[in-house]
Amino acid sequence: MQARVDTPLLFPFTRHQVGMAFARVAKRAGIEDFRFHDLRHSFASYQAMSGLSPRALQDLLGHRDQRMTMRYSHLSDDFLRAAVDRVQVRAPSTGNE
């Protein structure tokens, strides 16, 4: 896209235009039951699973309340399984070693 100087917007489209274009592309790709807003959830989830701090994620999403951020970030089953697998259980020390 060519730069536009008549608007301060990075992407000079209305919300309706973006939504309609996204719906068209998703339909062509055979993706069902997926909205543009779902990308926000995906962003939050991938950032959380990559190790971004909850506070930084909250700032990036523009949330005032950490509870809202937690509603947006969904951890995958594989991620949770790997977290459990990293736990190392050792027998307690008897002090006789």
Structure description:
With 97 residues, the protein is mainly α. The protein has one domain. Helix content is 52%, strand content 0%. The chain has helices spanning 15-28, 38-49, 54-61, 66-72, 77-85. It is elongated and about 75 Å long.
Task: Characterize this entry briefly.
This protein is mainly α and 97 residues long.
Tags for this entry?
single chain, 97 residues, mainly alpha
Mean pLDDT: 89
Largest sheet: none
Total domain units: 1
Oligomer: single chain
Structural class: mainly alpha
Shape descriptor reads elongated
Helix-strand sequence: HHHHH
Task: Give the arrangement of secondary structure elements.
Layout: H1 15-28, H2 38-49, H3 54-61, H4 66-72, H5 77-85
